[in-house]
Design brief:
The protein has helices at about 25-35, 70-80, 80-90, and strands spanning about 15, 20, 40-45, 50-55. By secondary structure, it is of the alpha+beta class. The chain has two domains: about 10-60, Pemi-like Protein 1, Chain: D (Ribbon), CATH 2.10.260; about 60-90, no CATH class. It has a two-stranded antiparallel ribbon. Strands 3-4 form a two-stranded antiparallel sheet. The longest helix has 13 residues, at about 70-80. It comes from Polycladomyces zharkentensis. This is AbrB/MazE/SpoVT family DNA-binding domain-containing protein. One of its GO terms (molecular function) is DNA binding.
Length: about 90
């Protein structure tokens, strides 16, 4: 038997943010999850259920030992195949 998971909830109304709508994240959730300004999130929706899911984007840092040339080549590959990688992620 594992440790019970505690869920943090909050209620918000959607508000106008430029040409979009935005929903603020309650302070308790921001603190519990240590969300910082500039953090990135993936937002998806299931139209059949109306459920919106928000997940943090996990940043991958390049490991030690890569030469500047290797870093540039890796950046080029990631940029060139960005759509392919994005589509693989959604499978």
């Amino acid at each position: 038997m594992g440790v019970p998971r505690m869920q943090v909830k909050g209620y918000r109304k959607a508000g106008k943010m430029g040409n979009s709508l935005g929903i603020g994240i309650p302070k308790e959730i921001v603190e519990k999850l240590n969300i910082q300004p500039g953090d990135e999130f993936e937002v998806s929706a299931d139209p059949s259920t109306g459920v919106i899911t928000i997940r943090p984007v996990k940043k991958i840092t390049l490991g030690e030992g890569l030469t500047p040339e290797m870093r540039e080549e890796l950046k080029d590959i990631l940029k060139r195949y960005e759509n392919t990688f994005r589509n693989l992620k959604d499978r």
